[in-house]
Structure formats: structure tokens, C-alpha cells
Amino acid sequence: MIETVLIANRGEIALRVARTCRELNLRTVAVHSTADRDSAVVRLADRAVQIGPPAARRSYLHVPAIMEAAAQTGADAIHPGYGFLSEDADFAEVCEAHGLTFIGPPASVLRTLGDKATARKLMADAGLPLLPGSTETLDSAAEARALADEIGYPVIIKAAAGGGGRGMAVVREPGAFLEHYQRTRAAAQAVFEDGRVYLERYQEAARHVEVQILCDQHGNAIWLGERDCSVQRRHQKLIEETPAPGLSPELTARMGEAAVRGALAAGFVGAGTFEFLVDPDGQFTFMEVNCRIQVEHPVTEMVTGIDLVREQLLVAAGRPLTTTQERVERRGVAIECRVNAEDPSRGFAPAPGVLEEFVPPGGPFTRVDTHGFTGARVTPDYDSLLAKVIAWAPDRDQAVARVERALAEFRVRGAGVRTTIPFLAEILGHPLFRDGKHTTSLVEQVLDIERK
Ligand code: MV4
Question: Of 16, 111, 292, 330, which one is the catalytic site residue?
Fold first, then answer.
């Protein structure tokens, strides 16, 4: 069994991981930058090691410093959280080479699924439904253009090394194809040092629905329900919920079974997410796999009663899954709102500062995952997620009312500090959201009306 877990992350997820480690009687090591020296996880963990200056590439992304901290503290496993090194195949390989258990899929799986074109091909071969598109990357402009004409417009050009909305371009007419193709390739080459791209038909007015999976090292794979993450702005999710409103249990069961089939085909181990688009007719198509614990994992925990981080730790230690597909039960509805230290009236610009007052909500069936506390400094060095407010209720109307109530209780104040709380309240009150009929365009629709 694992004894000491080094948490290679910060913020609310570092705290989230540390808490489950404590429940499992595992020792914890928090690594942190100088900017985070007074953070909540540094206080909570058994040991804390400073690994570098605020800039992430010199601390949370700096592999030698993290390995050094692991050696110093006798850690035998590393939990990477989300973001930073969580899906980095090279990092997982370095962990393996140092005899450290990487809490996530094997490096080879991270490499295969991290290449979104390879993942697409693998899932097509496993029988998952896909939008029309290329089965390989397209290395000649002429070949790409010919395929786009065949698929029909609009098409979307995606970087193989991208994902999560990075390195994509929608092309609405043949005349604009070449320019977008070249621009996307150049951008992908510059950002990812990998200019390979692939093509798909662009699906308008879609819902973003993802399936949580868990796999152990013994060939067991299960799915734990879906999450609707359609409320997003510039590929940052703002609100997530489960179950996905308006989707039949038959449809989501087919998505779940497809995800399990895909996970087994990939040799997946650990916690992961299969991302799908669902079109207005209820057809679903595979988009990509996320090989990490996700920000929005709590909504799945709230309806299943399963601690996903606990499963990650046990599976990494070689234990079988603690449950089976037949025993997974989902009850009620859970909604998560992400509270960011951003100013919606200034284009969601980061609005950091010292939290002079910080009183998170409480009450029935209300969970708040946060690293905030009165006196904490929110630094501009990292993403601006301050808290996740999650509410559970027996049905969706009650869950919406409950999360609205919780957000209204939240007191956050500090010089320069702004939060997305008022904006979240506005979205929760929108008729399309209320009816569960919204698509990924909802946030832009709301912002467009405000601009007029
Ligand atoms: C798409 C798409 C429509 N058609 N692909 C965005 C994140 C990445 N995982 C995949 N994404 C999308 N891929 C095809 N073929 C729509 C999205 C998408 C999206 C696009 C524009 C604005 C917001 C979006 C939110 C979720 C998904």
C-alpha cells in the first residue's frame, strides 16, 4: 500500500486530496511555491516543502524540484490533481523511473489519449460514435481542404496536441479554409511544438456532456453517471450538474457503456472522463478523454456517494474497485457553481487580493470546496478558482434553489477582490437554464444581451 502521498498541486484540489489521504491514514506532503507558503494545504499536510518561486514553470511544473521533495520526504506516490502535470506522460514516466506511484493512468495511456487524433482513431475502432471527420492527422493543405469539402461546412480544425478547447478553429465556408488551416497549424506548432491537426464536422448548438469512469489494474471498468457542463465561457466551465437535464436514462446509459468500452480499449487505469457532444436530436458523439480527476468531480460524488479521490488512491495502490456497476446507484441532483476571483464587468479579468472577509455558505446538502479563508491572499499567479459551491437535492428545481441560496450566503470581500457570484446567480435565473434547455451558447447569449 501507499504510505506517503506528495500532492503536486495547489488550491482547492490540493486540500481536497489531502483530506481523503487523511481519511485513509496516508501521510501527506504539500509542495508549494513561495506565493503559497501560507496556504491552507500547507497547514493541513503532514509536511510541506517549498519548491520554487510563484511562476508555475519554476514550481508546480518543475519536475526536478518535485522529485527532490519526494526523495527528501520519503513519499512513495504523487497525486497530480488537475492541470499542471496531471496529464503529462513524461512526468508519469519520470515518477515510474523513480519508483514513485503516479496517481493516474500509466504514462503510455496518457501519451495515447493525450494525442487527440490518436484517441479519436482508437475510439472509432472501439465502436464509439463520432462526427464525420479525419481518421488521421492531415499534413497537407490540399488533402485537408478536399476532406473538408467532402464533410461539408462548417468544419472544425483541431490540434492533435490540443484538447479542452485549445488549438481549434471553426471554418464556415470553403474560401476561408486554407487560411484557418495554416493559422491553426502554426499556432499548434508554436504552443505545443506539434503542428499536426485533424478535422471534424462542426456541430452547432450542442450540449457538453461527459461521463465519469473508474478503472482498476485488474480489468474492471465502471461508469458513474454523466455531467452536463454546457455552461461555459471561453472553454472555462462555470456550472456543472448531474444528471444531464432532459437526457433520457436510456441515452445516458448508452453513453456510459460507450465510455466503458472506450476505457477498456485504451487500457485505462484510474479516474477519467469521456467527453461527448449531444446534438439537439439527442445523438451523442465522442470528443476526447480527460485523464485526471476533474474540477467538477464533486457533483458525481454527491449523487453516487463514492469518493473519487479515494478510488484513485486505492486503484493506484493495486486494489480492486470498491464497487461494481450493478451497485452504483445515483440519487437526486447535484449542481456545482465555480466561484472565481474575476470581475464579470471587466471581461472576467482576474481580480485578486487579500480576502478581508471570507464566509462560505453552509446548510443542508451544501458542500464548499475551497482553499479560501479570511486573511488569505489570492495571488494573480494561478487560475482564479476560489471556491466550488455544490448543492444536492432530490430534484433539479430544489437543487437550483439550494445552490442559489448558498451563493447568496457567500461573503467574500477584500480590496480589489471581485467574484463571479452575481454572474452565476444571473445564469441560474435564466429561463433556458431553468428549463434545462441551454447549450454551450448560453453564456455568450447572456453576455450579448448585456452588451446591447
Ligand atoms: C467541437 C464542437 C462542435 N463540433 N467539435 C470544445 C472543447 C473540446 N473538448 C471540444 N470542444 C468542442 N468541439 C465539433 N466537431 C464544440 C465544442 C465545444 C465548444 C465550442 C465552442 C464554444 C463552446 C464550446 C463548449 C464546449 C464544446
Answer: 292
**Best mutation site among 87, 156, 231 for ligand 1 pocket (most ligand atoms within 8 Å of CB):** 156
Buried b (16+ CB within 10 A) or exposed e, 403-416: bbebbeebebebee
From the CA of 204, give the closest atom in ligand 1.
3
Regarding the beta carbon of 288 and ligand 1, being less than 6 Å apart is answered: yes
Q: Please, how many CA atoms are within 13 Å of residue 247, restricted to the half-sphere of its CB? A: 32
Residue corresponding to grid cell 450579448: 448
Non-local CB neighbours of 175 within 8 Å, separated by 6+ positions: none
Gap between the terminal Cα atoms of the chain = 59
Residue having the nearest C-alpha atom to atom 21 of ligand 1: 440
Q: Is the separation of the CB atoms in 203 and 131 below 8 Å?
A: yes
What is the full per-residue pLDDT of the chain (452 aa) written as tens digits? 899 999 999 999 999 999 999 999 999 999 999 999 999 999 999 999 999 999 999 999 999 999 999 999 999 999 999 999 999 999 999 999 999 999 999 999 999 999 999 999 999 999 999 999 998 999 899 999 999 999 999 999 999 999 988 999 999 999 999 999 999 999 999 999 999 999 999 999 999 999 999 999 999 999 999 999 999 999 999 999 999 999 999 999 999 999 999 999 999 999 999 999 999 999 999 999 999 999 999 999 999 999 999 999 999 999 999 999 999 999 999 999 999 999 999 999 999 999 999 999 999 999 999 999 999 999 999 999 999 999 999 999 999 999 999 999 999 999 999 999 999 999 999 999 999 999 999 999 999 888 76
Tell me which residue has its CA closest to atom 25 in ligand 1: 440
Q: Is the CB of 287 under 6 A from ligand 1?
A: yes
Q: Quote the CA–CA distance of 171 and 192 in Å, as a whole number.
A: 21
Q: Is 27 in the pocket of ligand 1 (CB under 6 A)?
A: no
Q: Which residue type occupies 60?
A: Y
> By C-alpha distance, which of 345, 368, 361, 366 is closest to 419?
345
CB of 200 closer than 6 angstroms to any ligand 1 atom: yes
> Would you call 292 a catalytic residue per the annotation?
yes
Q: Which H or E element spans position 207?
A: strand 207-215
CA of 125 to the centre of ligand 1 (A): 22
**Ligand 1 close to Cβ of residue 275 (< 6 A):** yes
CB distance 164 to ligand 1 below 6 Å: yes
- Which residue has a Cα nearest atom 3 of ligand 1? 203
Radius of gyration of the chain (CA): 21
